[in-house]
C-alpha cells in the first residue's frame, strides 16, 4: 500500500509507502493517510518541517513472518520534504489544492 501526494490527476505526484507517509505526514502535523490542503498552508508546513525536524536517523529493515518492512534510509524524511516543497510550489503557482491518499 502507498500514499501519493498530487495536485492533479495528470501529474506524477510524490509516492510513499504507508509507514513512511505516516512519518512524513506526522512531521507536517497531519494524522490521516488521506486528505487535502491549500497550497499555501501545505507549503508553510513543509518549510517549518524542513527548518525544525532533525535529520531522519532512518530505520532498519525488519521481517516478522510474512511481513517485511524495508526500513527507511538516513535522511529519507528530509528528501521527501524537499520533493513535497517542489510539489507545493507548483500547486501554489497554479492555484491548485494538494491531495494525498
Give a structural overview.
Helices cover 43% and strands 23% of the residues. By secondary structure, the protein is α+β, with helices and mostly antiparallel strands. The chain has one domain (2-100). The protein is globular, with a radius of gyration of 14 Å. It starts with a strand and ends with a strand.
Oligomer state of the chains in this structure? single chain
Shape: globular
Mean pLDDT: 91
Q: Helix coverage percent of residues? A: 40-55%
Instruction: State the total count of DSSP E strands.
Output: 6
Which H/E pattern describes the elements? EEHEHEEHE
**Content of β-strand:** 15-25%
Taking the alpha carbons of the first and last residues, their distance comes to 10 Å
Query: Please, how many helices?
Result: 3
List the uncertain runs. Answer: none
Number of domains: 1
- The structure class reads alpha+beta
Q: Radius of gyration, Cα only, in angstroms?
A: 14 Å
Largest sheet: 4 strands, antiparallel
How do the strands line up in the largest sheet?
Answer: 2-1-6-3
Topology summary:
Layout: E1 2-6, E2 14-17, H1 18-27, E3 35-38, H2 39-52, E4 62-64, E5 67-69, H3 76-94, E6 97-100
Antiparallel strand pairs: 1-2, 1-6, 3-6, 4-5
Summary of the model, kept short:
The protein has 101 residues and is of the alpha+beta class.
